[in-house]
Amino acid sequence: MSKLVITGRKQLAGEVPISGSKNSSVAIIPAALLGEGTTILENVPAIRDVEVFVQILEGLGVDVSMNKNTMTISPNDFSTYVTQYDLVRKLRASYYLMGVLLAKFGKAEVGLPGGCDIGPRPIDQHLKGFQALGADVSVEGGIVRLKADHLQGAPVYLDMPSVGATINIMLAASMADGTTIIENAAKEPHVVDLANFINAMGGSVHGAGTDVIRIKGTRDLRGTEHAIIPDDMESATYMMMAVATAGDVEIKGVITKHLEPVVAKLREAGADIEQNGDFIEVSGPERPKPVNVRTMPYPGFPTDAQQPLTAVLTRATGVSIVHESMYDNRLGHMNELVKMGAKARVQGKTAIIEGVPKLTGAPVTATDLRAGASLVIAGLSAEGTTEVHGFEIIQRGYEAIVDKLRSLGADVQVIE
Ligand code: EPZ
């Protein structure tokens, strides 16, 4: 266990470069196994989730190496379709190997992903998609076993625009016979990034970014080169830090389109935001205005930015209402913010936050990645010292966060 110790109330200022997207990387790294020959991925973030995926691929016998932010994957002679449970359980996104191994070998054995602190996270829509393509699916003893003598493209209508299900079905369909149509598909930026990657390998995916995606399968996908898109959620987190500390931060190397819902909401909260090419300048008022927000699938306000936003709203000049539509239990971090002097209460999936003039540093604990981000944001704006325990959880998704915070003038240190 390690903790991040923050001496707060420093206005952040300066420039921060944004790393490659975690959620795109954990989809594209397994997708590279579909291609014959070597794939080179640029702008891969050096984060724990990526490190775990490297271990998983090595466990499958794949030749993979990471040199700073460039990953080289040569799947040439790997042939196993059984993943190692002890590694898979560390990383929920390892379930993308179900779609990849099913496409490549016609069978897959992958451990069921654990739930986590934000609520039950079923994969029924993923399995429904695999069955539609002709796979036999069995789940027993915590292992998902898939088998298909022949994968045949088919229409799949998702009950909800699930990011994971959209990606997993796209992976399986990429090498199936014929065309698969995913309706009610997720439109997140990393769904589009994966579609572009599969097309660069010689695949045929059309409509990604809309709610109908057509995938025409092909057996001859080849290794390629691809740069991972910038991380929209890392960008949102640093924007929230700028507002929470009434600072003035320039976030560089972003795709501003991906941040539209976050920019709109922060402007509502009184932030000044200038967008110019691939950078966004954010400056916050002394205290933000209260806002109401309801998380929705893209292009709605992203659930992964909800927890960071609540940290900003603890010091608003009024009452904010935050509704978490996507998960049953993604407001647990509010208890930690209350320890820092926030005035908030949670009713079901809604947090009612009455802004206070200031927060006071305290020892708090990160229970999941974005909860951790919210506690860092609160610590940066609080008077005194905040200790964020469980810092290793934050390192899962935020590359070089200590260096980036220090370059913005934050007073932070990590204690193992
Ligand atoms: C992805 O999770 C992200 N993770 C999550 O980010 C993000 O919160 C989520 O999308 C929503 O944007 C990755 O991309 C690795 P979903 P995923 O399938 O794919 C329900 C982070 O902090 N559902 O869109 O699991 C599900 O329970 C992480 O980076 C089913 O019921 O999200 C949830 O309530 C946290 N059955 C809702 O849909 C299914 O088969 C959205 O889930 C699949 C999902």
Structural overview:
It is a single chain. A 4-stranded mixed beta sheet has the order 21-22-1-23, with helices on one face. Helix 10 (306-313) packs parallel to helix 12 (369-381). It has helices at residues 22-31, 48-59, 85-88, 96-105, 124-132, 163-173, 189-200, 232-244, 260-268, 306-313, 333-339, 369-381, 391-394, 401-407; strands at residues 3-7, 13-17, 39-42, 63-67, 70-74, 107-111, 136-140, 143-147, 155-157, 179-183, 204-206, 212-216, 225-227, 248-252, 272-276, 279-283, 292-294, 319-323, 343-347, 350-354, 363-365, 385-389, 411-415. The chain has 2 domains: 3-18 and 230-415, Enolpyruvate transferase domain (UDP-n-acetylglucosamine1-carboxyvinyl-transferase, Chain); 22-227, Enolpyruvate transferase domain (UDP-n-acetylglucosamine1-carboxyvinyl-transferase, Chain), CATH 3.65.10. With 416 residues, the protein is of the alpha+beta class. The chain contains 14 helices and 23 strands. The structure holds ligand EPZ. The site of ligand EPZ has 23 residues, from helix 1, helix 5, helix 6 and helix 12.
